[in-house]
Amino acid sequence: MQFGIFSVSDVTTDPTTGRTPTEAERIQAMVRIALKAEEVGLDVFATGEHHNPPFVASSPTTMLGYIAAQTKDLVLSTSTTLITTNDPVKIAEDFAVLQHLAGGRVDVMMGRGNTGPVYPWFGQDIRQGIPLAIENYALLHRLWREDVVDWEGKFRTPLQSFTATPRPLDGVAPFVWHGSIRSPEIAEQAAYYGDGFFHNNIFWPAEHTKRMVRLYRQRYEHYGHGKADQAIVGLGGQVFMRKNSQDAVREFRPYFDNAPVYGGGPSLEDFSQATPLTVGSPQQVIDRTLSFRENVGDYQRQLFLMDHAGLPLKTVLEQLDILGEEVVPVLREEFAKLKPAHVPDAPTHQSLLAAKRQDGEEQQEVAE
């Protein structure tokens, strides 16, 4: 099972000091956080994609390429790549380049985004969000797997004898997660292709998450990719920890109460009860995270949101120390004990390459 962090790249005023970081400081902080994630033994760093203030992650492949040059083992991912407003050809080529630079330590999470104005900024109509996601990914899927593509659709100009360059590393496309909060059509899309389904459940109650993942698993089996419990599932989460749970609540409360995404809504206690947000001791985070399995079954990737709401970099780095030293080692051990042998691990470039080679050997044996 993979454990990691994802960032939404918000530039938010620290309510305890009144200081707002500059965009340059926030970008450099995200890099430092990614390097710290590898240092403490996490598996994944993922960044979102946004094209509006107060966010700075408008070019994920640029940032991930920079981080790739400074890391050795960390899997570099997006927590959203806007499949609706990005050109599939550009996605195909950008992430293939990143694959080569990072030695395969790359995967992608497709999403529609939740900022309405982004669509017209890139010449699209938000009312076509689902059709765009379906058509654009159908093209991207082919661009990574076919050397020459002839294609015609509704939302972009046709392609004739087109080859995306460079080709994916080792002829293996980056593994794709389809991220969704509320759209069953995206769960269906992930199942159809046999891709991963990432339910970013940070604002949603457990029952909703359970329904979405169950739909994806059922449809994954329907399309013949394996048993329902072998489908590839990822979850989001939010945590803030101190040795003493009362200290954690006291320290995090002003950030929760004043953050744009929380402020004016439910109380910290009510929100924590209704969603995966866990503010407390490391043991409380361990217990809460292990309970996710009760709703979604065995799953392959757990990402935590930790650098949001104006939290200073020093505090985020302290949180990563706790996560890497006290929480993730226990979660690895406990989840491994519970996982049946037939449930796959999270896909990596190496595992996908091995599967491709095995398929090639089997096809050669059949031909002979």
From TrEMBL:
One GO location term (cellular component): cytosol
Entry-linked InterPro entries: Bact_Lucif_Oxidored, LLM_FMN-dep_put, Luciferase-like_dom, Luciferase-like_sf
Pfam family of the protein (one): Bac_luciferase
Gene Ontology terms for molecular function: monooxygenase activity; oxidoreductase activity, acting on paired donors, with incorporation or reduction of molecular oxygen
Region described as Disordered: spans on this chain: 341-368
Organism superkingdom: Bacteria
Residue ranges occupied by any Luciferase-like domain in the UniProt entry: 1-294
This protein's UniProt keywords: Monooxygenase, Oxidoreductase
Name of this chain's protein: LLM class flavin-dependent oxidoreductase
Organism: Saccharopolyspora aridisoli
